[in-house]
Design a protein that fits this description.
426 residues, alpha+beta, Rossmann fold, Dna Ligase, domain 1, D-amino Acid Aminotransferase, Chain A, domain 1, 5-stranded parallel sheet, 5-stranded antiparallel sheet, 22 strands, 30% helix, globular, binds adenosine-5'-diphosphate, binds magnesium ion
């Protein structure tokens, strides 16, 4: 069969790599992919938000299945469009994707269905929000309602900071329409982990838990980024806590959506804070995380295309996910300046030297220019290694990273440090 993968990051490279190992797949297309993806898939120069061109391409080329990496096309309704045209695509419909594209919708949903999350208030008017924070207890988290490329959540420590952020979101509209409403919620203390689950709307198959590293610098310092690395599974989350996450969060989420008349098919991602009073949802995403996918997919033994096909037939109950034993660690290599304005066009050296078993060099912002591999984005590569122990995976991944060089390359040297530091969360 022919499969199209939409997106251009390292998450999509990992997806393309994973499905390239499927015996069901003859040909993979990527819109628009990147230099790494181009080695295993045919590049299609269509932007992920150009839904009508994507639909036309799929129809013309008789693509059998489309997988969507990023949230934007999902929130724009690509699944609705493809379904209307009887084209096979795996992901939530627009209404379901609102779990990610509207934080207000997600919070109200969690409140209604008693899914544990931080207490919150919603505001449509700047004056009312500003009035509220004058008498509030701090710290608080202020979030723009809509999509903001992972940059729409702010921790504020006093009313002055809060008003500042509210002004930017609601008056200056730094995220455009996404700032028409805000959520102001309590700051939760604890360890953050992500759970991604595949669902056909009935059965929920959670993937291995994974921990992202959102800040730029070691020790969780510096500005927030799209994610600087991840590892999986998370050793300090025991089976009991995993069961709680399933029973108190994933299950009631899918059941609640159904009650709302929303049939959720696709990946459901919940960002969790493990607090002293149990796991709480920080946010939902309607797709795989980046870099979480790059850490988790190399551990998955089951054929992903088989899983997706079963999900599309609502027969996910017939699938049992098989995982490699051991651990996976992903380290993101970023350009100088990232997450601010970053440099581009720097030659990347050493990727061809990575030949060890179960070490993967997933590309993000890369391209070929004058026959050279060069940087073309903030996050450039996501290097992943799988090992029998976390220590072995770490050795392998940092050995591989040591072989790679581009001018200004920055990365975290402490990915997975929490796994050894954090002992227990009730
Ligand atoms: N209630 C909260 N308490 C503590 N930290 C939070 C809270 N909500 C969000 N955060 C932090 O902010 C980050 C971004 O928030 P999130 O809701 O995931 O929005 P987005 O990913 O859209 O920016 C989270 O990963 C987490 O580190
Ligand atoms: Mg998030």
């Amino acid at each position: 069969m022919k499969v199209l993968v939409i997106g251009s990051g390292a998450r999509e490279h990992a997806l393309v790599w994973k499905i390239s190992t499927s015996s069901l797949v003859d040909k993979i297309y990527a819109a628009p992919g990147n230099a790494g993806v181009s080695q295993i898939a045919q590049i299609v120069e269509i932007s992920p938000d150009n839904l009508s061109e994507l639909e036309k391409f799929v129809r013309k080329n008789k693509i059998d299945l489309t997988l969507v990496g990023p949230e934007l096309p999902l929130s724009m309704g690509i699944v609705d469009l493809f379904q209307k045209k009887k084209l096979k695509i795996f992901g939530p419909v627009q209404k379901a994707a609102a779990m990610e594209s509207s934080k207000v919708f997600a919070k109200q949903f969690m409140h209604k269905y008693h899914i544990p999350t931080a207490s919150y208030q919603v505001f449509q008017k700047f004056d009312e929000a500003a009035q509220f924070v004058r008498y509030a207890n701090f710290p608080l988290i202020v979030k723009a309602d809509g999509l903001a490329y992972g940059k729409g959540a702010f921790k504020v420590n006093d009313d002055e900071q809060a008003v500042d952020v509210l002004k930017k979101i609601m008056l200056e509209k730094i995220f455009g329409e996404s700032g028409n409403q805000v959520v102001i919620e309590d700051f939760l203390q604890g360890e953050e982990v992500s759970v991604m689950a595949i669902t056909d709307g009935k059965t929920i198959l959670p993937l291995l838990l994974v921990q992202d590293h959102k800040t730029l610098l070691d020790g969780d310092q510096g500005p927030n980024t799209g994610g600087m690395g991840a590892y999986s599974p998370v050793p300090f989350v025991d089976q009991k806590l995993q069961d709680t996450i399933h029973d108190k969060i994933l299950k009631p989420t899918i059941a609640g959506l159904k009650k709302e008349g929303i049939f959720y098919q696709g990946i459901l991602y919940a960002g969790l804070m493990l607090t002293s009073s149990g796991p709480k949802v920080l946010e939902y995403n309607c797709r795989l995380g980046d870099p979480e996918a790059q850490a988790v997919l190399p551990l998955l033994e089951t054929d992903l295309v088989e899983i997706v096909q079963a999900a599309l037939k609502e027969k996910l109950d017939q699938i049992k996910l098989k995982w490699k034993t051991g651990y996976s660690v992903c380290v993101v290599l970023a350009s100088a300046g990232y997450p601010g304005d970053y440099q581009k066009g720097k030659e990347i050296k050493g990727t061809e030297e990575i030949s060890e078993q179960e070490v993967y060099c997933f590309h993000a912002g890369t391209k070929i220019s004058q026959n050279k591999l060069v940087t073309a984005g903030g996050r450039v590569l996501a290097v992943t290694a799988v090992g029998k122990t976390l220590g072995k995976a770490l050795d392998k991944v940092y050995n591989a990273v040591d072989k790679i060089y581009f001018e200004g390359m920055q990365y975290r040297k402490d990915i997975a440090y929490k796994a050894t530091e954090v002992k227990k969360y009730a």
